Structure formats: structure tokens, C-alpha cells
Task: structure prediction
Amino acid sequence: MKNRIKLAVLYFCYNREDHLKQSLPNVLRFRDELPLFIFCDGPKDLNNSETVKVENYLKSVMCDIQNCKIIYREENLGLAKNIISGVNHVFNLGYDTITVLEDDCVPNRNYFNYMKNALNYYLHHRNVMHVSAFGLPLKSKPTKDSYIAPYPCSWGWGTWKEKWIECNFYDTEYYNKILSDKEILEVFNWSGKSFSHFLTLQIRGNINSWLIRWYAHIFKNKGVCVWATDSKLYNIGFDGSGQHKVKYDIYNQKQIDKCKAFDFHHDTSTFNNKIIKQFRQFFMGPSFIDKLKTLLYINTGLLIERLRDVSNYYQGK
Result:
């Protein structure tokens, strides 16, 4: 399939040499000559030997790689600022769309093919604002190769310049409106009870997440996000490293999708409630009861909650 859009690959890393050595070779092997921008975050202090190892590895591996640029940050920006500024930088260079991988995301041979096709396919779907090649291990999968959900995935994703540049990542007034209005909050949490919890932590300064702010922007504009039915990458970050220190993996699919033609879900105006019921089990919230519901679904496939229809909000009614 010919590219109808100017696409760039962005890769973000910091201080995890072991992750870098697993993911970057696959990016280089499968990117299919797409331009590659690597953003390496700077150290938090001068004695950070792990960032030195990462820089040395990049310099040794990338010396002969064509169509690639490495941006070494002089200071530590943190993941959120690194991603936001990195994406802005590449869009300002004239690219129409981007696909983003972090160092804990190992793409398979079908990742870039999927992203190129999906970003082209959904180019003129005005309400689609985010595409991901990651697939959750749903017990009952859709028949198409993609489905829509309100929430974006940060593992192996892409978007378009015209959608991204409209985002105000400092829209605190709207964040507070979400949390203070019960009706809006219910819809915001419709596909996962964790989302208001993340937004609260963001406002309080307990976390610094580009993703929850990006979701708030998508939600404000009644946008939707595309997820892959069968995952095109594997996340190796469930080892306690990284920003979130997560050790328990309920998100990766056991088998990664093989190369094939794609049959994308076309109707982006309505959600499949059966899929969303399963989707929200992975984002149920911090309470003990919510965690039990997630474990029950993961181990048995049992769903014990009802889900009301929120299509009127997304259809602007």
C-alpha cells in the first residue's frame, strides 16, 4: 500500500539499556525505511551511569543507520515533556502523522504495516484521534482487526498533526470541570473507572502524565481511539522499572499477531458495548473491589456489572 501521508517513527528512551537492546533492533529491522527520530532523555544527575550506557549503546548501534536522527536531551525532561515536545518537534518538521514507541515496546514485523494502513484508513474519520497497534487480551475478541474505545493506548500508537496540535496539555479548568460534574465524570469513566483517578493525581501533581491529558482533550472533543484486536507489539515494562513501577502484567496477549491483510472496523460513530465491558476491566480503578472484579474477569471471563449507553454524548446529542 502506498503512503498517502508523510509518516515518521518516534522512539523514546531514557536509562533502561536492557529494554533498549530488546526493542530498538526490532524498530530498525521492521520500520521499512520510514524516517526515525530517537529522543533520549537526559540524566537527573551527573552520576547517572545508566543514561551513559544508553547513550553509548545508541552511538555504537546507530552510526551507520540511514534516515535516522538522535536527539539527546541536555537535561532530564521526564517522560511527559519528552513525548509532548518530541511529537511537536517532528510535526513542525512537516510530517503529517507519527507513530510512537517507547523503549519497553517491542514491535513485531507487522507493527509498522498495521500503523501505516490504520493511519491511512482512519485519516478522514474526523472523530478518530488516536490509533494504537496494541491489543488487550480480551476474552471475546471483535471480528475485525480493530475496534474503537474512548481511551487512548500509549503503547505503540500514532496520531495526525491536525488532531495533536489542537491539544491544550494545560487545560486545568476543564480537568476540574470533569471531576466536579457527576454527569460528565460518569461518561469520562465509562470505559474505565481509573481515568478520573489518574486525572486527580495529575491535578494534584502526584503524577505527570501526557496520556491522561491527551485523553481529556480527546474526550472534550468527543473523539474516539482505535485499538488493535490482535497485538502487534509486546510490552516488556512489567519488571518494576520505568515511571509507573508496574510488576504485574495483565495487558499483554500471549500470542502476537502474524502478517496478514487488515479488515478495519469502519463504523466509528457507535461503540460495541460487549467489547467496552471487557475493555473497562483493565482500567477498573484503585479500590480493592475494583481489583477483584479485574482479577475475576482475567481468570474466568466473568463480567458482573452493567454498562449504560453513553452514545448520545459522543454523537453530540
Observations:
- The chain has one domain: 7-314.
